[in-house]
Design brief:
Layout: H1 7-20, H2 26-37, E1 42-43, H3 44-51, H4 55-67, E2 72-75, E3 82-85, H5 90-122, H6 127-157
Antiparallel strand pairs: 1-3, 2-3
Helix pairs in contact: 1-2, 2-4, 3-4, 5-6
């Protein structure tokens, strides 16, 4: 008996909606969904065929997705074709994304903002500059709160 015939299309529509919320366009979202849904690697040519987009368009989107660590490019011996894969373990995906947030966003801000704030506080400031330093201080305090939440999520995902 054949599985629900529209499962793939419904899933791809869901993924398009989810990832458009993260700023991905429709083609990129559908590519993520297709690669995620495929049990093994899938070739760029097959993705172009399934989407109806040109190989050049699909290639450009896949390069962007690879750059953002959303897909992994896989080379197979004996062929020059590019294949793509996505980890199926959602916990692993989320841990990797949280690590990127820590490494590229929270870490640098946490290490540089206190000195930046302190240096400015020691200098003479106008009323407008004091307001700006308070905004930056609030930003820093909120980042520390976000970091605690993310750290808890990261630990929970490791279980």
């Amino acid at each position: 008996m054949k599985e629900h015939p529209c499962l793939e299309e419904e899933f791809l529509d869901l993924m398009s909606g989810v990832f458009s919320g993260f700023g991905l366009d429709q083609l990129s979202s559908r590519l993520v969904g297709m690669i995620f849904l495929d049990p093994k690697e899938i070739s760029m040519e097959e993705l172009a065929k399934r989407t109806g987009y040109s190989l050049a368009s699909v290639s450009n989107k896949l390069k962007m997705l690879e750059m953002h660590q959303m897909v992994v490019r896989v080379r197979k011996p004996g062929t020059k074709k590019a294949f793509y894969f996505i980890e199926k373990d959602v916990h692993a995906i989320m841990r990797r994304k949280l690590n990127v947030i820590f490494d590229q966003f929270l870490g640098p801000a946490r290490s540089s903002l206190p000195a930046m704030i302190e240096k400015c506080r020691k200098s003479r400031m106008s009323a407008e500059e004091r307001q700006k330093i308070e905004i930056v201080q609030g930003y820093y305090s909120q980042l520390l709160e976000v970091e605690k939440v993310f750290e808890k999520i990261r630990k929970d995902l490791e279980k």
